[in-house]
Specification:
globular, Alpha-E superfamily protein, mainly alpha, ATP-dep_Glu-Cys_Ligase-2, about 0% strand, DUF403, single chain
Protein backbone atom coordinates (compact mmCIF):
# COMPACT_ATOMS: atom_id res chain seq x y z
CA UNK A 1 0.00 0.00 0.00
CA UNK A 2 1.20 3.50 -0.80
CA UNK A 3 2.30 5.50 2.25
CA UNK A 4 -0.03 8.32 1.17
CA UNK A 5 -3.07 6.00 1.20
CA UNK A 6 -2.05 4.55 4.57
CA UNK A 7 -1.77 8.09 5.93
CA UNK A 8 -5.28 8.93 4.68
CA UNK A 9 -6.80 5.88 6.37
CA UNK A 10 -4.97 6.64 9.62
CA UNK A 11 -6.16 10.25 9.67
CA UNK A 12 -9.69 9.33 8.70
CA UNK A 13 -9.87 7.35 11.95
CA UNK A 14 -8.30 10.18 13.94
CA UNK A 15 -10.68 12.85 12.69
CA UNK A 16 -13.77 10.71 13.33
CA UNK A 17 -12.65 10.17 16.93
CA UNK A 18 -11.66 13.82 17.39
CA UNK A 19 -15.06 15.07 16.26
CA UNK A 20 -16.81 12.79 18.76
CA UNK A 21 -14.63 13.83 21.71
CA UNK A 22 -14.95 17.53 20.91
CA UNK A 23 -18.74 17.21 20.70
CA UNK A 24 -19.05 15.27 23.95
CA UNK A 25 -16.68 17.56 25.86
CA UNK A 26 -18.57 20.66 24.70
CA UNK A 27 -21.95 19.12 25.53
CA UNK A 28 -20.99 17.86 28.99
CA UNK A 29 -19.08 20.97 30.07
CA UNK A 30 -21.74 23.38 28.94
CA UNK A 31 -24.78 21.60 30.36
CA UNK A 32 -23.19 20.21 33.54
CA UNK A 33 -22.15 23.75 34.49
CA UNK A 34 -25.83 24.65 34.84
CA UNK A 35 -26.13 22.30 37.85
CA UNK A 36 -22.60 22.54 39.23
CA UNK A 37 -22.41 22.96 43.04
CA UNK A 38 -19.41 25.29 42.91
CA UNK A 39 -19.71 28.92 41.85
CA UNK A 40 -16.56 28.83 39.69
CA UNK A 41 -17.76 25.68 37.88
CA UNK A 42 -20.94 27.58 36.97
CA UNK A 43 -19.02 30.62 35.72
CA UNK A 44 -19.64 30.96 31.98
CA UNK A 45 -16.14 32.31 31.21
CA UNK A 46 -14.57 29.37 33.05
CA UNK A 47 -16.61 26.92 30.96
CA UNK A 48 -15.90 28.65 27.64
CA UNK A 49 -12.16 28.78 28.38
CA UNK A 50 -12.11 25.03 29.05
CA UNK A 51 -13.90 24.39 25.73
CA UNK A 52 -11.30 26.47 23.89
CA UNK A 53 -8.53 24.67 25.74
CA UNK A 54 -9.94 21.34 24.54
CA UNK A 55 -9.49 22.31 20.88
CA UNK A 56 -6.19 24.12 21.38
CA UNK A 57 -7.48 27.64 20.76
CA UNK A 58 -5.32 30.29 22.38
CA UNK A 59 -7.27 33.04 24.13
CA UNK A 60 -6.04 36.04 26.04
CA UNK A 61 -6.32 35.71 29.82
CA UNK A 62 -8.22 38.97 30.22
CA UNK A 63 -10.32 38.55 27.08
CA UNK A 64 -14.07 38.27 27.64
CA UNK A 65 -15.29 35.34 25.59
CA UNK A 66 -18.64 35.58 23.81
CA UNK A 67 -20.63 32.39 24.24
CA UNK A 68 -22.15 32.23 20.75
CA UNK A 69 -18.78 32.89 19.11
CA UNK A 70 -16.99 30.16 21.09
CA UNK A 71 -19.68 27.55 20.45
CA UNK A 72 -19.91 28.41 16.74
CA UNK A 73 -16.12 28.29 16.32
CA UNK A 74 -15.86 24.90 18.00
CA UNK A 75 -18.82 23.38 16.18
CA UNK A 76 -19.53 24.82 12.74
CA UNK A 77 -16.97 27.46 11.77
CA UNK A 78 -15.48 26.34 8.42
CA UNK A 79 -12.52 28.67 8.93
CA UNK A 80 -11.36 27.00 12.17
CA UNK A 81 -9.23 23.92 11.58
CA UNK A 82 -10.28 22.46 14.94
CA UNK A 83 -14.06 22.77 14.47
CA UNK A 84 -16.22 19.65 14.43
CA UNK A 85 -17.35 20.56 10.91
CA UNK A 86 -13.73 20.64 9.68
CA UNK A 87 -12.95 17.32 11.38
CA UNK A 88 -15.83 15.69 9.48
CA UNK A 89 -14.70 17.40 6.25
CA UNK A 90 -11.15 16.10 6.72
CA UNK A 91 -12.43 12.59 7.54
CA UNK A 92 -14.51 12.56 4.34
CA UNK A 93 -11.61 13.88 2.23
CA UNK A 94 -9.43 11.06 3.51
CA UNK A 95 -12.22 8.55 2.86
CA UNK A 96 -12.58 9.86 -0.72
CA UNK A 97 -8.92 9.18 -1.45
CA UNK A 98 -9.29 5.62 -0.06
CA UNK A 99 -12.69 4.96 -1.64
CA UNK A 100 -11.75 1.59 -3.17
CA UNK A 101 -10.36 0.22 0.11
CA UNK A 102 -13.28 0.81 2.48
CA UNK A 103 -16.73 -0.79 2.34
CA UNK A 104 -19.66 0.86 0.54
CA UNK A 105 -21.62 0.96 3.82
CA UNK A 106 -18.75 2.74 5.54
CA UNK A 107 -18.33 5.29 2.75
CA UNK A 108 -22.07 6.00 2.45
CA UNK A 109 -22.30 6.52 6.22
CA UNK A 110 -19.43 9.00 6.31
CA UNK A 111 -20.85 10.79 3.27
CA UNK A 112 -24.29 11.17 4.90
CA UNK A 113 -22.58 12.29 8.10
CA UNK A 114 -20.71 14.98 6.16
CA UNK A 115 -23.83 16.33 4.43
CA UNK A 116 -25.84 16.38 7.67
CA UNK A 117 -23.17 18.56 9.29
CA UNK A 118 -22.68 20.80 6.27
CA UNK A 119 -26.45 21.43 6.03
CA UNK A 120 -26.95 22.07 9.75
CA UNK A 121 -28.54 25.48 10.36
CA UNK A 122 -26.02 27.91 11.86
CA UNK A 123 -28.78 30.16 13.16
CA UNK A 124 -30.56 27.31 14.90
CA UNK A 125 -27.31 26.06 16.41
CA UNK A 126 -26.21 29.33 18.05
CA UNK A 127 -29.66 29.96 19.57
CA UNK A 128 -30.86 26.56 20.79
CA UNK A 129 -29.22 23.74 18.84
CA UNK A 130 -26.12 22.90 20.91
CA UNK A 131 -27.56 19.77 22.53
CA UNK A 132 -29.14 18.51 19.32
CA UNK A 133 -25.99 19.08 17.26
CA UNK A 134 -23.50 17.53 19.69
CA UNK A 135 -25.81 14.55 20.31
CA UNK A 136 -26.05 14.06 16.54
CA UNK A 137 -22.25 14.06 16.20
CA UNK A 138 -21.84 11.49 18.98
CA UNK A 139 -24.59 9.29 17.58
CA UNK A 140 -23.32 9.38 13.99
CA UNK A 141 -19.72 8.75 15.09
CA UNK A 142 -20.85 5.63 16.93
CA UNK A 143 -22.77 4.40 13.86
CA UNK A 144 -19.79 5.07 11.60
CA UNK A 145 -17.36 3.20 13.85
CA UNK A 146 -19.85 0.34 13.95
CA UNK A 147 -19.83 0.24 10.13
CA UNK A 148 -16.02 0.19 10.14
CA UNK A 149 -15.97 -2.71 12.60
CA UNK A 150 -18.88 -4.65 11.10
CA UNK A 151 -18.63 -4.24 7.32
CA UNK A 152 -14.88 -4.22 6.59
CA UNK A 153 -12.33 -7.00 6.40
CA UNK A 154 -10.13 -6.93 9.48
CA UNK A 155 -6.97 -6.54 7.43
CA UNK A 156 -4.29 -3.83 7.17
CA UNK A 157 -6.84 -1.24 5.97
CA UNK A 158 -8.95 -1.85 9.07
CA UNK A 159 -5.80 -1.85 11.23
CA UNK A 160 -4.78 1.59 9.93
CA UNK A 161 -8.19 3.14 10.64
CA UNK A 162 -8.36 1.58 14.10
CA UNK A 163 -4.79 2.67 14.79
CA UNK A 164 -5.86 6.26 14.13
CA UNK A 165 -8.99 5.91 16.26
CA UNK A 166 -7.16 4.47 19.25
CA UNK A 167 -4.18 6.83 19.29
CA UNK A 168 -6.58 9.76 18.98
CA UNK A 169 -8.76 8.40 21.79
CA UNK A 170 -5.79 7.92 24.13
CA UNK A 171 -4.57 11.45 23.31
CA UNK A 172 -8.01 13.03 23.82
CA UNK A 173 -8.63 11.19 27.11
CA UNK A 174 -5.25 12.41 28.38
CA UNK A 175 -5.94 15.97 27.19
CA UNK A 176 -9.30 15.97 28.98
CA UNK A 177 -7.60 14.64 32.12
CA UNK A 178 -5.19 17.58 31.97
CA UNK A 179 -7.97 20.13 31.50
CA UNK A 180 -10.23 18.75 34.23
CA UNK A 181 -7.39 18.28 36.72
CA UNK A 182 -6.44 21.94 36.26
CA UNK A 183 -10.12 22.89 36.60
CA UNK A 184 -10.44 20.85 39.81
CA UNK A 185 -7.38 22.63 41.24
CA UNK A 186 -8.87 26.04 40.42
CA UNK A 187 -12.31 25.17 41.80
CA UNK A 188 -10.86 23.91 45.10
CA UNK A 189 -7.99 26.43 45.39
CA UNK A 190 -9.46 27.94 48.56
CA UNK A 191 -10.12 24.46 50.02
CA UNK A 192 -7.38 22.11 48.71
CA UNK A 193 -8.69 19.19 50.77
CA UNK A 194 -11.78 19.16 48.54
CA UNK A 195 -9.69 18.39 45.42
CA UNK A 196 -9.98 14.63 45.82
CA UNK A 197 -13.79 14.75 45.76
CA UNK A 198 -14.33 17.64 43.37
CA UNK A 199 -17.41 17.71 41.14
CA UNK A 200 -14.96 18.00 38.22
CA UNK A 201 -14.17 14.26 38.48
CA UNK A 202 -17.81 13.47 37.73
CA UNK A 203 -17.86 15.74 34.68
CA UNK A 204 -14.51 14.30 33.58
CA UNK A 205 -15.95 10.78 33.46
CA UNK A 206 -18.98 12.03 31.55
CA UNK A 207 -16.68 13.80 29.07
CA UNK A 208 -15.14 10.45 28.13
CA UNK A 209 -18.40 8.49 28.32
CA UNK A 210 -17.22 6.45 31.31
CA UNK A 211 -19.32 7.63 34.24
CA UNK A 212 -21.63 4.63 34.34
CA UNK A 213 -18.95 1.97 33.97
CA UNK A 214 -16.74 3.67 36.56
CA UNK A 215 -19.63 3.60 39.02
CA UNK A 216 -20.09 -0.12 38.38
CA UNK A 217 -16.42 -0.84 38.95
CA UNK A 218 -15.99 1.20 42.18
CA UNK A 219 -19.58 1.36 43.50
CA UNK A 220 -19.07 4.81 45.02
CA UNK A 221 -18.96 8.46 43.91
CA UNK A 222 -15.88 9.28 41.79
CA UNK A 223 -12.77 10.65 43.49
CA UNK A 224 -9.43 11.80 42.14
CA UNK A 225 -7.84 8.45 42.94
CA UNK A 226 -10.51 6.22 41.38
CA UNK A 227 -10.86 8.37 38.26
CA UNK A 228 -7.10 8.53 37.58
CA UNK A 229 -6.72 4.81 38.22
CA UNK A 230 -9.65 3.95 35.97
CA UNK A 231 -8.92 6.22 33.00
CA UNK A 232 -5.16 5.64 32.95
CA UNK A 233 -4.66 2.09 34.18
CA UNK A 234 -7.79 -0.01 33.64
CA UNK A 235 -7.01 -2.63 30.95
CA UNK A 236 -10.61 -3.63 30.18
CA UNK A 237 -12.57 -0.47 29.45
CA UNK A 238 -12.30 0.76 25.81
CA UNK A 239 -12.13 4.40 26.98
CA UNK A 240 -8.94 4.09 29.01
CA UNK A 241 -5.35 4.89 28.07
CA UNK A 242 -4.00 1.40 28.86
CA UNK A 243 -6.70 -0.30 26.78
CA UNK A 244 -5.99 2.03 23.85
CA UNK A 245 -2.27 1.27 24.12
CA UNK A 246 -3.00 -2.47 23.87
CA UNK A 247 -5.13 -1.84 20.77
CA UNK A 248 -2.44 0.35 19.20
CA UNK A 249 0.13 -2.42 19.77
CA UNK A 250 -2.21 -5.02 18.25
CA UNK A 251 -2.84 -2.96 15.11
CA UNK A 252 0.83 -2.02 14.59
CA UNK A 253 1.69 -5.72 14.88
CA UNK A 254 -0.85 -6.47 12.14
CA UNK A 255 0.87 -3.95 9.88
CA UNK A 256 4.46 -5.04 10.51
CA UNK A 257 4.96 -8.08 12.79
CA UNK A 258 8.67 -8.36 11.91
CA UNK A 259 9.47 -5.16 13.81
CA UNK A 260 8.36 -6.56 17.17
CA UNK A 261 11.93 -6.90 18.47
CA UNK A 262 13.61 -3.99 16.71
CA UNK A 263 14.65 -1.15 18.98
CA UNK A 264 13.54 2.45 18.47
CA UNK A 265 10.57 1.48 16.31
CA UNK A 266 6.96 2.53 16.97
CA UNK A 267 6.14 -1.05 17.96
CA UNK A 268 9.05 -1.12 20.42
CA UNK A 269 8.00 2.21 21.95
CA UNK A 270 4.38 1.17 22.40
CA UNK A 271 5.43 -2.15 23.98
CA UNK A 272 7.70 -0.32 26.40
CA UNK A 273 4.97 2.17 27.28
CA UNK A 274 2.41 -0.62 27.77
CA UNK A 275 4.65 -2.47 30.20
CA UNK A 276 5.20 0.70 32.23
CA UNK A 277 1.45 1.33 32.57
CA UNK A 278 0.50 -2.31 33.03
CA UNK A 279 2.53 -2.63 36.23
CA UNK A 280 1.95 0.86 37.59
CA UNK A 281 -0.48 1.43 40.47
CA UNK A 282 -2.42 4.54 41.38
CA UNK A 283 -0.31 4.83 44.56
CA UNK A 284 2.75 5.29 42.32
CA UNK A 285 1.31 8.43 40.74
CA UNK A 286 -0.87 10.00 43.45
CA UNK A 287 1.86 12.41 44.56
CA UNK A 288 2.69 13.48 40.99
CA UNK A 289 -0.60 13.26 39.14
CA UNK A 290 -0.08 16.40 37.07
CA UNK A 291 3.42 15.36 35.99
CA UNK A 292 2.24 11.84 35.12
CA UNK A 293 -0.60 13.15 32.93
CA UNK A 294 1.83 15.52 31.16
CA UNK A 295 4.30 12.65 30.68
CA UNK A 296 1.56 10.48 29.17
CA UNK A 297 0.47 13.23 26.79
CA UNK A 298 4.01 13.92 25.55
CA UNK A 299 4.66 10.17 25.14
CA UNK A 300 1.55 9.80 22.98
CA UNK A 301 2.60 12.76 20.82
CA UNK A 302 6.07 11.21 20.33
CA UNK A 303 4.48 7.86 19.48
CA UNK A 304 2.21 9.49 16.91
CA UNK A 305 5.18 11.28 15.31
CA UNK A 306 7.13 8.01 15.24
CA UNK A 307 4.23 6.22 13.56
CA UNK A 308 3.89 8.88 10.89
CA UNK A 309 7.64 8.92 10.22
CA UNK A 310 7.84 5.11 10.08
CA UNK A 311 4.77 4.24 8.06
CA UNK A 312 3.47 7.30 6.22
CA UNK A 313 6.43 9.40 5.04
CA UNK A 314 8.55 7.06 2.95
Amino acid sequence: MLARIANNLFWMGRYIERAEHTARFTNVNYFSSLDAPNKLSRDRQFVLQSIYEMVGEEDEKDEVLIEQDVLYNVALNPDKHYSILKCICYARENANSSRDLISNDCYETINKFYHSVMNYSKDYFVTRGLHDFTSHIMHQSTILKGKIRGTMLHDEVYALIKLGINIERATQVTRILQIKYDAAEQVTSSKPKHLKKSYEWTTLLKCVDSFDINRRVYRKPPTQSTVIEFLMLNPNSPRTVLYCLSQIKEHITMLDPLKAHEKNTALFLIGKMMCEYKYKTVEDIEDNVKEFIAHTFSSLIKLSEKLEDEYFYH
